[in-house]
Amino acid sequence: MKRKALGAVIAQAAQAGIGLLLQILVARLLGIDEYGRFAILYGVVIVATAVVTGLIGDSLVVLERSQRAIRAGLQAMLLITSAVLAAGAFLTAWLTGFSDALEAAIFAVALAAFAVEEIVRRLLIAHMSFVRTAATDISGFIVALAIILIVNATGTLSLGVFLAGIAAGQIVATVIGWLLVPRSDRHLVGLRGATIAPVWRYGMWRGLQQVLRPSLFTVLRLLVLAGAGLTAVGLLEAARTYTSPLILVIGGLSSFLFVRFADQHKAGTGGSVREADRVVGFLLIGTVLMSVVAVALVPWVSPLLFDVEVDPLAVVAWLAYGMSVAIVTPYGALGAVGGKQVAVFLIRLSDTVLAIIAVIVMLAWGAEPSTLPFALAVASMLGGLGLRWLVVADGRTERPPR
Question: What's the whole-model pTM score?
Fold first, then answer.
């Protein structure tokens, strides 16, 4: 089991590391201002992917996808969701003037490619095939990197071309990942007779919850953009990206815990609060150790990665947020697989709204953008405490009478 947990971290590391490298490439090749613009577009992609992950990805883990009607419902939901999200992304980017029509269209294709590839990843994760998941992501990144570097050598690299390279990489990763899915699960069914209702009933709340964190980041970027400008967005995003290895470890364990708790629930054993407590303790210790190293290396590593030195205070603030995520993740996974997905969502929604209000107040009082992640951290920690109370109370309710 420890090997599978390590594999989950490796898979998440591959995905997050690729995201980190892409952002570094933008900052180095296109400049910090274009990096700020890319951060906003990429943030929208992450939000859309989170919707698909919760709505369809978590549903295929928890529901019986071996049933033809359920499988057809999952497929139909993926087609509908990816098409709607891509169309919305195109219209928003174009009509707001943030991108021209061509760049907006490329952005929409990239978003749809991310959505479909994510579901292939979730199929692999459902089988705990984490090494294959990492191989899928890496193969797509190699294709994207090749396109980006070739075009950059011609001196014609733009953000639109960068997005096109990413889209191509995601399409290749989707094909390779599908071929790596175990044969028993590597098949499509006709959409006739699709049962969408169970997918929607469970996945809607998971999708809403999954979108909260990336949406929070997107709102934060937009608030900083309005209050301090595009360069401030780029610098704050650079600090967040610098601390992303911490979040990727937590995210990898989150994927592992969700599948583990779901399998235990199907088997009738259920996950335990004590197990979640142990995971939280492990994550907090690891967070502290990684934070010390990260802060010490800021003066040397950040200029190498982003061509600018990020604010150490912003790094500490994002590390504090990472610590809060360590508190939230295990309890959220345990509650969701136990049928408490609505309550989990409401708690997470509450701490997200609290974080946004705190950020607005801080900006109104003239706070530096580098301090804003502290507000996110405090709100998230409160949410984690609420989630723990939820799963403890649920465990007491389900305890058989003596």
Answer: 0.70
